[in-house]
Amino acid sequence: MLTDEIWMQRALDLAQLGGGFVVPNPWVGCVVVRDNVLLGEGFHAQYGGPHAEVNAFRDIKDARGATAYVSLEPCSHTGKTPPCADLLIKHQVSRVVICNLDPNPLVGGQGVTKLEAAGIEVHVGVLAEKGELINRRFFYFHRNRRPYITVKYATSADQFIAHPNGDAHLFSNPISQQLVHRLRAEHQAILVGVNTANADNPSLTTRVWPGNSPIRFVLDPQARMDERLTLLQDEFPTYIFTHEVKKTEGYKRWIALGSENYLQKFMGYCEEKAIQSILIEGGTKTIEAFIQEIDVQEIIQIESTEVLGSGISAPNIELTDARTYQLGSDNHWKVQLGEENLA
Ligand code: AOF
Ligand code: ZN
Predict the structure, then answer these.
(1) Which of 21, 75, 138 best tests ligand 1's pocket when mutated (most atoms within 8 Å of CB)?
(2) Which residues lie near ion ligand 2 (Cβ < 5 Å)?
(3) Minimum-distance ligand to the CA of 274?
(4) Which residues lie across from 149 on neighbouring strands?
(5) Which ligand is nearest to the Cα of residue 56, counting in written order?
(6) Which of 17, 25, 188 for mutating ligand 1's site (highest number of atoms within 8 Å of CB)?
């Protein structure tokens, strides 16, 4: 029904207003409509905060006989808030339209069962592909029980990522930089290798886009990180994955994985800790290792128009299916595999 799609689009638009504040929860929006009149709307605005349905119904006095459009199956579990399916039943809506079912085992179809048992008509799958796209990291994690991995790197036009001596070069412009920070806020963790950490002294936090900072991971098998680095000196947590070294100093933790199957063990650690998504920000060796040994779901290249002539080569990846966007006069943003979320 066309009306269903129009209202669901509204719910999806609202969902995305959760921006960089909801990870590792999904983006969820909800609109309540009766006789084509909008009675209320809301979205999940913050991790641990009220669910979309709670916000949508907050100011509604009478929703009897209304239709609730929810971009994700209403929850059936008592988590940080009571089950949203119960809230819809209490308000006596007569119909619930859902974009995607919730693969989270806590919910997994039971939201629908609960609603139907209460005599509410339930319709699933309106604009399902759009919902799948915006919450692709959440869905991937719950279906596969392993983190969704995005690789991101920035290059010159001649495909170098740094100067020959390893010194960093700023390829991004203010627009692509904002998008990078948006990506950081939308991933649960961010990862670099020790060479990038030592060469760039990055902080890996979210600054030029509103949102939370990801958990910071460094792959440092031989524990070679310079102790003066921001990653070791600031007040935020950093997890350093080594072969042998195991210790804790304040918010900094060194985790020993052994030298055999190191990357596999790292993934095992992430699965155990339920890390939903990881943004890999370099460098070339780390990115190539993930592409060769681990399944990567999304690749993003920022390509500058600048020519370096020589330097450290970019990862050897062919972006055959990439969508390309021009950002400003001197940057291209290429996205491959998972669809882009620039819309
Ligand atoms: C959300 N927002 O609007 C909906 C969610 O820890 P809790 O209690 O916040 O529950 C989180 C789970 O609830 C989440 O993983 C998803 O399965 C379900 N639905 N979550 O954060 C919402 N509707
Ligand atoms: Zn809920």
Answers:
(1) 75
(2) 51, 75, 84
(3) 1
(4) 278
(5) 1
(6) 25
In terms of Cβ atoms closer than 10 Å to its own Cβ (0-12, 13-18, 19+), residue 73 is buried
| 116 CA distance to ligand 2 middle (Å) | 16
Does 4-134 match 147-341 in CATH topology?
A: no
DSSP H stretches of helix in 64-163: 84-90, 110-117, 128-134, 136-144
Cis? peptide before 108, omega within 30° of 0: no
**CATH code given to domain 147-341:** 3.40.430.10
**Closest-lying ligand to the alpha carbon of 47?**
1
Atom of ligand 1 nearest to the CA of 49: 9
**Domain coordinates of the chain in residue numbers?**
4-134, 147-341
User: In the 8-state DSSP scheme, what is residue 101?
Assistant: -
Active site residue 121: no
Of 140, 136, 126, 133, the residue nearest 10 (C-alpha):
126
Show pLDDT as tens, one digit a residue, over the chain (343 residues).
689 999 999 999 999 999 999 999 999 999 999 999 999 999 999 999 999 999 999 999 999 999 999 999 999 988 888 999 999 999 999 999 999 999 998 888 899 999 999 999 999 999 999 999 999 999 999 999 999 999 999 999 999 999 999 899 999 999 999 999 999 999 999 999 999 999 999 999 999 999 999 999 999 999 999 999 999 999 999 999 999 999 999 999 999 999 999 999 999 999 999 999 999 998 999 999 999 999 899 999 999 999 999 999 999 998 888 999 999 999 999 999 754 333 3
> Quick one: fold of 4-134?
Cytidine Deaminase; domain 2 (3.40.140)
ipTM of the shown complex: 0.90
Q: In this structure, which residue's CA is closest to atom 14 in ligand 1?
A: 25
